[in-house]
Specification:
Two copies of one chain form a homodimer.
Chain A lengths: L12 H6 L20 H7 L4 H6 L1 H15 L4 E2 L8 H4 L3 E4 L3 E4 L6 H5 L6 H4 L1 H13 L6 E6 L1 H10 L7 H9 L1 H24 L4 E6 L7 H7 L1 H9 L7 E5 L6 H7 L3 E3 L6 H8 L4 E6 L8 H15 L5 E5 L9 H15 L2
Parallel strand pairs in A: 1-4, 4-5, 5-6, 6-7, 7-8, 8-9
Antiparallel strand pairs in A: 2-3
Helix pairs in contact in A: 4-8, 9-11, 10-11, 11-13, 13-14, 16-17
């Protein structure tokens, strides 16, 4: 156990934006900001496997802190992987170079769901909480720590498909053919996710993000029936007073349903204009986003011009957290990421 | 040259729907209906390569006709590939088992764009027109033939990336860093596509579909600036009086922009509720879609129940063409595809 954390200032720009309160500038962080585009990250990664980086709290904490030092972003996000929860459930997890994560024993029927194990998160995922404590201890008061988890649909579809998928045939087949097994799987995953996110909060995370990376594969009707109740149960089960960012990729037609499932802030990707998304979401909810990550391959003047377009869409309305519309890509020049952060800070200063 | 074609009946249900006129039932066809889920297709495919199937008019015509016989759909769609146009332009094209199509000389800068060749479609793509003639000659009058092409964004991004992509880094980098080269590439592709589609029409296609399979990667602003003028130019350049179906995947936020680019019918995928999409598109335009293709992995009663939901969303309004929201998947049981067609015909009979 490390020393008790210094909590973040509840009036820092990021936490004010989570509450839709005005701040002296628009806060910005970048999805996957602790990642391969940073040479100091690649330096550590060259010595240990991806899973080992996740499991060694001092390494996870170090890479979490790297973008705070390098970019000057307004929040840290814990370095971890959305699939870490899958291993203690008993499905098996492997990261291999090139092919990405693989589930060793895909869960495709009720029998496999029943065979999953209950998870005592402090025992099996305590290394994540310890990393959170180390990060919090290493952060200035002005910088909050964001905890996160994959949303249950995204975790379930990974467990069912066994790896990345294009058409989600196994996932949807289970939904359509055995909805009882589907809901049982979602409940089991959700129970783990509630404990996992609360554990991160107890260890020092002042906000959490629920990533529904793959939810854009679903029709609105399927989301409503097969996913929304589970995401809602998770969000309702988190420690009160801790802001939740609810983000889906390619989810433009699901925004209202995701908002109804919960979240103080809804993450938008670049496929929807921010003003249009925020108008649909209505008052009382913040938005996060939504610059196309590939814009960082253009040059700093163009990055600035396009960042301004996003800020203009937000119109200075309190409750906007600037971010990319998806994770930063591994080959982006670091200078371009810095240019984005600087431009957002400068152009949004009030 | 084959014998002159018998034109399709302009009052068949499919062509009436294209004009938003009432028909005695809702017409249905299925994207990729000439495909691997059919044993009679696999039988032919087992003997020749994919490209050879495209290039031998008698084989392309045969597989185009197979689903007409087997499923009883209301329209035929020419068997071909959206990338056939790339080869005569000089970028090189290869289909290899497992990895899908590959562009041998990706086009990533202005120099590469300038090096592309002008295309005389009747010389280099005449085999497609000959296949269309053979199909038309083999079809009953009640069944129209749909010609098709990839939309210029989808073709361009394939040419630039060299193969399938997740993030379109090269494509968007060209857009953002050298918009002159981008527009030059789109113009060259569009010129070929106009001739190619008009060639199909002259050979017997009574309607055409423009497939923008990858357009969902774009923000609305980027679509407007980098794509819309080119798609609009193509649609405006086609033979008058021939209905155009304009379809994009994951394009829920682009629907109005795609409609403004042109099309008598806008294709919807399953990510948007059909009623919602049609309401946004307004009067004067038909819609095509939009059952999730994975529904065909459930059983016939569930397929029927979900087909009814789509028909209910359309509400019997003239101008609805039933289809999946994307191509039929190769492992779908044929009986399930037949069950869908039968259910749509029966439930929509007026």
């Amino acid at each position: 156990m490390s020393k008790p954390a210094t909590p973040a200032d509840p009036n820092c720009p990021f936490l004010r934006a989570c509450r839709c309160e005005p701040a002296d500038h628009t806060p910005i962080w970048i999805m996957r900001q602790a990642g391969r585009y940073l040479p100091e990250y690649r330096e550590i990664r060259s010595k240990v496997s991806f899973l080992e980086m996740c499991r060694r709290p001092e390494l996870a904490a170090e890479v979490t802190l790297q973008p705070i030092r390098r970019l000057g972003v307004d929040a840290a996000i814990l370095f971890a992987d959305i699939l870490l929860v899958v291993e203690p459930m008993g499905a098996g997890l492997e990261f291999s170079a090139g092919t990405g994560p693989r589930i060793l024993r895909p869960v495709r029927d009720g029998r496999a769901v029943d065979a999953l194990q209950a998870v005592e998160v402090s025992a099996s995922l305590g290394y994540v909480f310890e990393a959170a404590r180390l990060v919090r201890a290493g952060l200035p008061r002005q910088i909050p720590l964001i905890g996160f988890a994959g949303a249950p649909f995204t975790v379930a579809s990974y467990m069912i498909e066994g790896g990345a998928s294009r058409d989600y045939v196994h996932t949807k087949s289970l939904m359509y053919r055995d909805s009882g097994a589907w809901h049982a799987l979602m409940e089991r995953i959700s129970t783990v996710l509630i404990d996992y996110l609360n554990g991160q909060i107890d260890a020092g995370a002042q906000a959490v993000q629920l990533f529904d990376s793959w939810v854009g594969a679903l029709s609105p009707g399927d989301y409503r029936e097969f996913v929304q109740p589970h995401s809602a149960r998770i969000i309702a089960g988190l420690r009160p007073g801790v802001p939740v960012i609810h983000f889906g990729t390619g989810a433009a037609t699901l925004l209202e349903l995701m908002r109804d499932a919960g979240g103080d802030v809804i993450g938008l990707d670049w496929r929807i204009e921010l003003a249009d998304g925020w108008r649909r979401l209505g008052n009382g909810v913040g938005v996060q986003g939504n610059l196309d990550p590939t814009v960082l391959y253009s040059d700093p003047p163009e990055i600035r011009r396009r960042a301004k377009q996003v800020l203009d869409q937000a119109g200075g309305r309190p409750g906007h957290i600037f971010n990319l519309g998806h994770g930063i890509l591994p080959t982006v020049p670091v200078d371009h990421a810095i240019a984005l952060v600087d431009a957002v800070h400068e152009m949004s200063s009030r």
